[in-house]
Specification:
heterodimer; A: mainly beta; Folate-binding fold; 4-stranded antiparallel sheet; two-stranded antiparallel sheet; 1 helix; 6 strands; B: alpha+beta; Ubiquitin-like (UB roll); FAD/NAD(P)-binding domain; Arc Repressor Mutant, subunit A; 6 domains; 6-stranded mixed sheet; 48 strands; 29% strand; binds zinc ion
């Protein structure tokens, strides 16, 4: 059982979190203009890196989505950052 | 075998009676079943798994693979208890698991005579042809160990504890005790766990004094120091696994019949002081009863006062044999030392030993104690991802590069001398080790069967066969021969097996490699993992606010998509038909509270919903309601429901009952990832607004008597609009939407008003012939109308145009979830499965749900789709069905063949809407 740091709630057990996707994937828009290949890449291709991986996770009790960088080999959590862009 | 006066940690003032294979025995408090039987001269404690060879204990604790018992006490039965780790209790009735009728005379012992016909891979090779299932019953009957009762044990619940500490010390031997004391006295929070009742580990069996004290006194002093410094000591607690981020699972044993507790302890630092066990020596007949590990025999003597033999031969390759011989001689045995590195040796005797021979020399003995060197217990280290390195001087794998926050000390680290161990535990300079060993390897030329895995009957010949057939990788070797797959998971057999494979291939043991170590370290009941996560606590049911009223009205409650809802009202399933007819003739009153009520609020709400939904939602006007689909990005239909616009910046999503949590999660994901989360908010109010739905030709009349302060006239309050009214002073949101095909009103009110609303609706309906109805009747009504249920009438490939909803796909210009996926080659296929209705011929029974529609070409059947919903329609007087069929929309009127469980019938493709196709009733 890993321990992840929720930016709102602090360190919590892994089972309170859900993986939501690899970070950095951008939905191609306008989607109508995308080729089958581009769309398929967006849907199905994942980097699945060995080592540091930037991922989007959600802490289900508070529903905050955030970016977590973790090492997929050592399971070390390397850091978290908020998903939302600064709007100020 | 006898008790030796004055030795052992047992309480001789407390005798305990028990039985084994039906015979009565007596032991003492502090005995294990194994030690008590040995003390009574009962050596044979079980039969091996494959050949049913008679077996006695090899080890005195978890390293014994042989003695496995079914135990009953006070009506409680537990299968597969290791005799060496089960403490004796008054009245225990034990039986050897793999023996019929008992361990001493087992009828399957004959299997042993046929062993040459049962080599490694025997099952794989023999039972392949013509079909494994022909043999399965017979083999399953022979396989497995204890008998499992097919009843849940009441009250057998594992407590689940969670804790954290600075330092967790696993193993309470000399090294663990010393390390725990140092850590506790330096001010750190310490937990010290040991699997025995008594702390001390290998100290008792080593004999002599520890730093000038008796082992008992020294252990007592260390424990007092640890607790005085605030440490916690946990006896009877075995660490079964180390998991990510320094989480350790520990299982605490209790009295027999009480489920063990699971402790999940997160430690900053884990100190592994788990000790070492003897490696068996591979020689002919080395599985005979009376061949025991050297340290096992010393444990039996030191902890339980049991001397395992009178005339003992010690067959060892290491320096611990000499002090062991001294201890055993002092206890009264005659001991002869043999050098295991000189081989080959053969044991003689059947159920009792009479000699060991080397070449022509025959040495009479009743017991052989064997050791091929100490093997550090590195399992937990490997669980955590630590590396191992091979130390040739002690012929063992020891912990190398470690996981962060984990450290190995003492025998687990290959440090076998007491003084060196203590220094290591205290972080002092290390004295020189005195432990020495002469390497051994199995003699491939020796005559007779040489056992590698005692419990699973893997012999050196089996390893040779595996090597000959090229199963040389240790992982293949394990699976081909079942080496190390017994309930001891290779604790004893692993090193002997690796040594055998290495010898066969002319390689070294480190070149051969090790198999993966997996938790749990010792077998534990599944209950340990389950704990409180059962029944209601595993996945709590959602309960309706109106449940007491529904039950009072006679509801038969059942689970639907995670909620407890009325299936029907009255005495049995026949009420479903009555309720469906009532709904069409008068009106039905439903509890529809589980339908989603998810508010989407904010200046970006309209654009957000327009993106989330397949259908255009931006143009929906306040006061109106629109039906729509949510798709996955892959274009598949995920949910259907209606959206009501409350105002310019406020909408309510009413999704399917079972999708509320999923829809909220999707909305939140898109809101936070891709949108400005300060301009749109998601608020799930589903539990705050119970809903009573009234549907049927008399629905309006019922609503009129509820005094909702809404103009209910058909032209004033149209289908797919909503109004805000009042009920008994509270806000009542009334929506004209229908899942039945008749005029329907959904009335949602605050929780406190729900009971009054339900009762008022029932009272108003009664004189009109209307009453409550359950989910089952509603399912029939909606199928009559061709209204689909996502996940029942659709599958993971169904796209909206497969359901007849093509317009947004063709016309909607704004982006929406799944849009591009609706225009791929796959989405355009002509043979996509489309939703249609099916009619059986007059007089035929309803089609089975799940039945396939088949096309027969040249005598070969091919499925072209399947029945998704099927009912007898009481309103129409004939069966109706919905189906997903390839190119279904173009098959209207076509006669198809239905195939189900070998039977064939006929059906005709129709529109999915069987009831009121013009919609007169819906809009009335
Ligand atoms: Zn949180």
């Amino acid at each position: 059982m890993q321990r992840f740091p929720c930016p709102f709630c602090g360190p919590r057990d892994e089972r309170e979190f859900h993986f939501a996707g690899e970070a950095g994937k951008i939905r191609p828009t306008p989607s109508a203009a995308q080729s089958d290949t581009d769309w398929a890449t967006y849907l199905y291709e994942a980097q699945n890196p060995r080592g540091p991986s930037r991922e989007i996770w959600v802490h289900t009790p508070c529903q905050e989505y955030f970016i977590m960088t973790r090492d997929t080999v050592s399971m070390e959590v390397l850091g978290t950052e908020q998903l939302r862009k600064e709007t100020l | 075998m006898k008790r030796v006066e004055g030795l052992g940690l047992i309480d001789r003032r407390t005798p305990l009676n028990f039985s084994f294979d039906g015979k009565p025995y007596q032991g003492f408090a502090g005995d294990t079943l194994a030690s008590a039987l040995l003390a009574n001269g009962q050596r044979i404690m079980g039969r091996s798994f494959k050949y049913h060879r008679p077996r006695s204990v090899w080890g005195a604790w978890f390293d014994d693979p042989n003695a496995i018992f079914d135990i009953e006490l006070n009506g409680f039965h537990e299968p597969n208890c290791p005799a060496a780790t089960t403490y004796l209790e008054e009245g225990m009735q034990a039986r050897a698991v793999n023996a019929t009728p008992n361990a001493h005379s087992d009828i399957k012992g004959l299997l042993d005579k046929f062993n040459r016909f049962m080599p490694a891979g025997f099952y794989y090779k023999t039972f392949m042809w013509p079909n494994w299932h022909l043999f399965e019953g017979f083999i399953r009957n022979m396989a497995g160990l204890g008998r499992v009762e097919n009843v849940a044990k009441s009250g057998y619940i594992s407590e689940q504890h969670h804790a954290t500490c600075d330092v967790l010390v696993i193993g309470g031997g000399a090294a663990g005790l010393a390390a725990a004391r140092v850590a506790a006295e330096s001010g750190r929070s310490v937990i010290l766990a040991d699997d025995h009742r008594e702390f001390g580990g290998g100290l008792f069996r080593q004999g002599g004094l520890v730093e000038g004290q008796t082992p008992v006194d020294w252990v007592t002093e260390q424990l007092s120091a640890v607790t005085a410094a605030g440490g916690l000591v946990m006896p009877l607690t075995t660490a079964i696994g180390v998991y990510d981020h320094n989480l350790v699972g520990l299982v605490e044993a209790h009295a027999f019949g009480q489920a063990p507790s699971l402790h999940r302890i997160r430690a900053e630092q884990i100190i592994m002081a788990t000790g070492a066990i003897d490696r068996p020596v591979t020689f002919a007949n080395n599985d005979r009863p009376g061949i025991i590990a050297v340290d096992g025999a010393l444990e039996f003597l030191a902890r339980y006062g049991v001397l395992v033999g009178k005339n003992i031969a010690i067959l060892s390759n290491n320096s611990l044999a000499t002090p062991a011989a001294e201890i055993l001689r002092t206890a009264g045995a005659k001991v002869r030392l043999l050098d295991a590195s000189t081989g080959p040796f053969t044991a003689h005797g059947g159920k009792s030993l009479n000699a060991i021979s080397q070449g022509t020399e025959r040495i009479p003995c009743d017991t052989i104690l064997a050791s091929g060197g100490l093997v550090p217990l590195v399992h937990l280290w490997r669980h955590a991802g630590g590396k191992l390195s091979w130390r040739a001087d002690i012929a063992a794998f020891v912990p190398a590069k470690g996981p962060v926050g984990m450290q190995a000390i003492g025998a687990a680290n290959g440090t076998f001398d007491l003084d060196v161990s203590l220094s290591e535990a205290r972080g002092e300079n290390l004295p020189k080790s005195t432990y020495t060993l002469r390497p051994i390897q199995p003699d491939l030329t020796a005559k007779g069967r040489q056992w590698i895995d005692f419990q699973h009957d893997v012999t050196l010949k089996d390893i040779e066969l595996a090597a000959r057939e090229n199963y040389t990788s240790v992982e293949h070797l394990k699976r081909y021969t079942t080496l190390g797959m017994a309930s001891d998971q290779g604790k004893t057999s692993n090193m002997a097996g690796l040594a055998a494979m290495a010898t066969l291939q002319g390689k070294s043991i480190p070149e051969t490699g090790t198999t993966t170590f997996r938790p749990p370290f010792v077998p534990v009941p599944f209950e340990v993992y389950r704990g409180a996560r059962r029944g209601q606590y595993f996945n709590p049911l959602k309960r309706l606010v109106l449940e007491p009223e529904l039950r009072a009205a006679g509801a038969a409650m059942a689970e639907y998509g995670g909620s407890l809802r009325p299936a029907w009202f009255g005495s049995g399933p026949h009420e479903i038909t009555r309720e469906a007819i009532m709904a069409r003739r008068a009106a039905a009153i439903f509890d529809a509270s589980t339908l989603g009520k998810i508010e989407v609020i904010g200046p970006d709400a309209a654009a957000f919903l327009n993106f989330i939904y397949y259908n255009t939602m931006a143009t929906l006007k306040p006061g109106f309601i629109r039906y729509g689909f949510m798709l996955t990005e892959r274009g598949a239909v995920y949910d259907d429901g209606v959206v009501a616009r409350m105002g310019e910046n406020r909408f309510i999503i009413s999704c399917s009952s079972s999708h509320v949590d999923g829809v909220v999660a999707r909305l939140e994901a898109w809101r936070q990832d891709g949108n400005n989360p300060d301009r749109v908010f998601i608020h799930d109010t589903t539990p705050n607004w119970p809903t009573v739905t009234v549907t049927g030709p008399k629905a309006r009349e019922i609503l009129e008597s509820l005094d909702l302060q809404i103009d209910l006239a058909p032209e004033a309050f149209k289908h797919m609009t909503w109004r805000e009214g009042r009920f008994e002073g509270a806000v009542a949101r009334v929506s004209r939407v229908s899942f039945s095909g008749d005029t329907s009103f959904e009335i949602s009110v605050p929780v406190a008003t729900a009971t009054a609303l339900w009762q008022a609706a029932l009272a108003a309906g009664k004189p009109l012939g209307a009453g409550p109805a359950g989910v089952e009747a509603l399912s029939i009504l909606r199928a009559e109308k061709g209204y689909l249920i996502i996940g029942k009438d659709t599958d993971g490939d169904t796209m909206p145009h497969d359901l007849g909803f093509s317009i947004p796909r063709q016309k909607k210009t704004a982006d929406f979830v799944g849009d591009r996926s609706l225009h791929t080659e796959n989405a355009n296929r002509a043979d996509r499965k489309q939703l249609v209705g099916l009619m059986a011929p007059p007089g035929a029974a309803a089609l089975p749900t799940g039945a396939h529609l088949v096309e027969v070409t040249l005598g070969k059947r091919r499925s072209i789709g399947y029945v998704t919903s099927s009912y007898h329609s009481p309103t129409l007087g004939h069966p109706i069905a919905l189906a997903l069929i390839e190119g279904g929309a173009a098959r209207m009127g076509e006669d198809l063949t239905v195939w189900h469980m070998g039977k064939q019938s006929a059906a005709q493709v129709t529109s999915p809407c069987f009831y009121d196709p013009e919609g007169a009733a819906l809009h009335a």
